[in-house]
Design goal:
InterPro entries: ASHA1/2-like_C, START-like_dom_sf. With 149 residues, this protein is of the alpha+beta class. It has three helices and six strands. The protein has one domain: Alpha-D-Glucose-1,6-Bisphosphate, Chain A, domain 4 (2-Layer Sandwich), CATH 3.30.530.20. The longest helix has 24 residues.
């Protein structure tokens, strides 16, 4: 990788990994993570994102009428196989965490493995570990509903 260095997670060792069998194909999941955030995660009209390494991005999510800002940049992109990005929100206590998503063909779908690393506390990691399964479920459902966005 050239350009900006990835964040140093040495002092923030808290992380988790989850896996989910997805109905969607790796290509659709890759596109969802790099181009279609509004389809499954971001509030409409809030996304500013280019799928390029080191390109900064911004989007907002909305829960109970409250918008939550998310910032980051792509660290690594391997088409249909891997997305690695930084993730900064109030839920990470402003720390630049790293989300790594690997996509492995599995039967008619995909085994998605998500690792979220670099949390400043075990409690913040634990809270996010509880949230991600629902987010991935929503992603899978939205991709199933929309064969093409």
């Amino acid at each position: 990788m050239t350009g900006l260095a990835p964040p140093d997670l040495t002092e923030r060792p808290h992380n988790f990994t989850i896996e989910r069998l997805m109905r969607a194909q790796p290509a659709d999941l890759y596109d969802a993570w790099t181009q279609w955030f509004e389809l499954w995660l971001a509030a409409r009209g809030s996304v500013s994102m280019l799928p390029e390494v080191n390109a900064p991005f911004f989007f907002e999510t909305q829960h109970a009428g409250i918008r939550h800002a998310h910032y980051g940049r792509f660290l690594e992109l391997e088409h249909d196989r891997l997305i690695e990005l930084t993730w900064v929100t109030t839920h990470t206590l402003g720390a630049e965490t790293v989300v790594t998503v690997s996509l492995v063909p599995h039967g008619e779908g995909t085994l998605l493995r998500l690792r979220h690393a670099g949390f400043p506390t075990a409690q913040t990691a634990s809270r996010q570990a509880e949230v991600w399964p629902g987010i991935l479920e929503q992603l899978d459902a939205r991709l199933s509903e929309n064969a093409q966005p």
